[in-house]
Amino acid sequence: xxxxxxIWKPEYxxxxxxxxxxxxxxxxxxxxxVSIRDQEGxxxxxxxxxxxxxxxxxxxxxxxxxxxxxxxxxxxxxxxxREFVARVQGFERDLENDRLDMHAMVDFLRDWLIDHIVHTDxxxxxxxxxxxxxxx
Length: 136
Ligand SMILES: [Fe+2]
Prior knowledge:
The protein is an all-alpha fold. It has a domain at about 45-125. Helix content is about 75%, strand content about 0%. The protein is elongated, with a radius of gyration of 16 Å. Fe (ii) ion binds near residues 116 and 121.
């Protein structure tokens, strides 16, 4: 998949506007990393972009998790989020140690975001609608 094609697609919708808007913003932050990667970037701008992403991820996961706290597999989903945060923190450390591969990071982030939304988030939001529909 070419990066220019990585834009929001209707099939990424979880059915909740607030979360869809946050996912869209995550893709925007990702696009920013792509352009920084392609510049003669200094370390400070790269670091700033990664820290901005980390900040927003924190806000986003907190928002998202509130929607499915009652889900029987809530703890699994939260663990996946924590592992992702640890990966991104690892990128920031790699940058400080001059061994960050920006290309690998950008690819990982794109693949993770899309895969996670499509295979985990959408399923959880669907499950919660089922649970709600069953009146439990
Ligand atoms: Fe998630």
